[in-house]
Design brief:
The protein is mostly helical. The protein is built from two helices and no strands.
């Protein structure tokens, strides 16, 4: 009985991780699009201002968090 409960808990955690990733996907797509636009402006010098630094930081933090989530997921899989 306890094993079934633990397995259900692990599955719920996995489902929550997948949902969290999906919830952030659109936000990251917008941030990446804005960053791409800022780095490929025709007739304009590329800038490295606060908004661009914020976009880069946001994307990097998301990538780090996804990496951690994937690591947790892999640990759960290996332990069961």
């Amino acid at each position: 009985m306890q094993v079934k409960r633990e397995k259900a808990d692990v599955q719920q955690t996995i489902d929550n991780l997948i949902k969290a990733i999906e919830d952030k996907e659109n936000f990251i797509k917008v941030a990446q699009s804005r960053l791409l636009e800022r780095t490929q402006r025709l007739g304009c010098e590329n800038c490295h201002d606060k908004p661009m630094i914020g976009l880069v930081r946001c994307i990097m933090l998301f990538i780090i968090r996804i990496g951690r989530a994937v690591g947790l997921y892999e640990d759960m899989i290996l332990n069961y």
